Amino acid sequence: MSKQKEWVEQPGALNKRDMIIRQIVFNAILIIVCLIVLYPVLWVIMMAITPNEIAGVSSSLIPQQVTFDNFIDVVSRVDDYGNHLFLHQLKNSVLVAAITTALGVLLACTAAYGFSRLNFVGRQLGLQAFLVTQMFPGVVMTIPLYILLGKLGLLNSIVGLVLVYSVSALPFCVWNLKGYFDTIPKELEEAAIVDGASRIRIFVTIVLPLARPAIAITALFSFMTAWNEFILAATLMNSELAYTLPVALKQYVGAQSVQYGLFAAGAIIVSVPIMALFFALQKHLVGGLTAGGVKG
């Protein structure tokens, strides 16, 4: 009887052991993949805390000397007239990103709701036109935008940069929100209409609160577009005091030499707000990106 019981329990013990081995192997693979993915990040951090003179020479992830002088030098840069460049460039980046986000979300929400709920002539053509604009890289539009903003007197201006960024991010934002609005039952709006609510009140008090995850994704995308963009900002801005932070980083990359330590420190400073936003909005990321693709 004991032999039979031992024979019956053996397969279960083997299965448990196999599960433990598989779990160990799976975790080991995940650790290796994470190290591969994090290697460039660790390399940048290593260069940022290494003295600028030897930051581009060392090939080890463990710095020989640890210093924070690179961060201090980046945030304390001044021009020939004594202007604190970092504060001006930080202010420019914050203003451009914040206004672009607010304007982009406002335009995208209203346009997406119109495309989702209203039937009008040219509705499908308008949606397809948004997709067509995404077929061309943004660099193609650099020269026309430069000429247009020059005629409007908006070169080297935060207003001009905000307008360009808002228009660039609008197609994706409209399509993302339009797909999410399609998932909201129309019966909720019909019930509100029966109770006497206007279309604007329905949009503000019912639709927008329900679309909060998609709006968060739209705001994050608009902010990232404005905060990280380099080519248009470098082309349309010709004064150091008007630069945004990504454009300011190019000052550390010259034709003859690269200041690796300062560049790495500046890159970390520029990436901090984006990482903070991702952590703050992470609960909305999956819901906002997947739910918007159910219909549309």
Structure commentary:
The protein has helices at 2-48, 69-75, 85-117, 123-133, 142-152, 158-183, 186-194, 199-210, 212-228, 231-236, 245-249, 260-291. With 296 residues, the protein is mainly alpha-helical. The chain is globular, with a radius of gyration of 26 Å. The termini are far apart.
Compute the separation of the termini in Å.
65 Å
Structural class: mainly alpha
Number of helices: 12
Percent helix, as a range, is over 70%
Assess the beta-strand content as a share of residues.
under 5%
Overall pLDDT: 83
User: Can you tell me the residue ranges where pLDDT is under 50 for at least 5 consecutive residues?
Assistant: 1-9, 292-296
Radius of gyration: 26 Å
Shape: globular
Strand count: 0
Oligomer: single chain
What string, H for helix and E for strand, traces the elements in order?
Answer: HHHHHHHHHHHH
What is the makeup of the main sheet?
none
Descriptive key words:
296 residues; mainly alpha; globular; disordered N terminus; disordered C terminus
Brief digest:
The protein is mainly alpha-helical and 296 residues long.
Secondary-structure blueprint of this entry?
Layout: H1 2-48, H2 69-75, H3 85-117, H4 123-133, H5 142-152, H6 158-183, H7 186-194, H8 199-210, H9 212-228, H10 231-236, H11 245-249, H12 260-291
